[in-house]
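input
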Amino acid sequence: MHIQGTKKLLDYLKINPVSQQELDPLFSWHANLMTINRRKAIVLVNDRNRYIIVLYGITAKHVKKLDELILESIKETFLEEGIKEEIVEQYIQHAPDFTFAKTKDKTSVARMNKSCETIYIWDDLLDDDHVEQIKFNKEASRYLITNGKNNYINPNRELYKNLEDFTGQMAIQVKAVRLNVKLNLENRSVVRKLVVPLNFTFYQLHKALQIAFDWKDYHLHEFYIYGDQTTDAQNKGRSLNYPSFDLENKKLIVNLVCNKETLDYKNDIPVKLEAEIKLSSYLPTYKHMNYIYDFGDDWTHRIEVESFINDYDKNFPVCMEGEGNTPPEDVGGTHGYEMYLNILADPTHPDHQHMLEWGKGQYKREFDIEKVNRFLRSEFE
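output
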């Protein structure tokens, strides 16, 4: 791997640079040393596609095994992207031995510096407990950047194309799950059928559901996961409107929440933070879930696992089918929604005009599967 470092980085590493080499830019990286939150960070930017790899919290002991850390970070990040393991191994094996040189030219340095700016945008994703920054690398490399006059790229998408050209095969292959998601409404049918990568966290599933159902993410939410077995004690002491209430008395396994404060509440079931749990941690063992959005209106989405895909060729969700429009935000739950629809259907109702104007202010879209999929791809790829 050819690393072209700034003087600041080369001095810190105490490396005498080799002369410049003409190598495939896919295996060549410009690198800089930065200080973020009082910690040293090495930022590598690929010369071909501008993909970013960050090593954070670098100390003298890390410098001694820098080659190993860089390769491991590249490997783990590419795998987390959903790139086929065989392609990742091929890339690593084909890479030349590590060499360190000075930066190539002003253009390359300017592009590297532009990419380095993203570290300030995504610094809240930096993990203080690990040198490799897999999550940060993925998010920062999705940021649209300039790549010459009137040219803009997403580094991650460029990386996929480069690896496909390099290997002659599709770069992305992940395991995925087909989900049937139904919004609980009294007299309406609102359903979305989604394919979601199993390496997604439940927080990412939440974001996908918000897009699929055209919610605005104004409110808190949580997941409840159930087992197949039933228990008479499941709903003891709980009303029908209690978020974890299950009509089939299925055993409640875990509650996944969106904020850390909730973890401190006493509960009779395990409570975990959704952002730290991947779908693969509970699926396919458990196939029944409830997703609750807005604890005031209590919009309950019943999620059923339909099947699994071993060779899904995308690293973002896709809506396969759907019907029905989602209620407006803050309409008052299922009862309030029925009242809202009845008023809209009655031009003589004294609140008709008010509700009409209020409804327009919600900016709700008619369900359009093409738009949903466009938004899903834009959000996650």
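quick obs: The first helix runs from residue 7 to 13.
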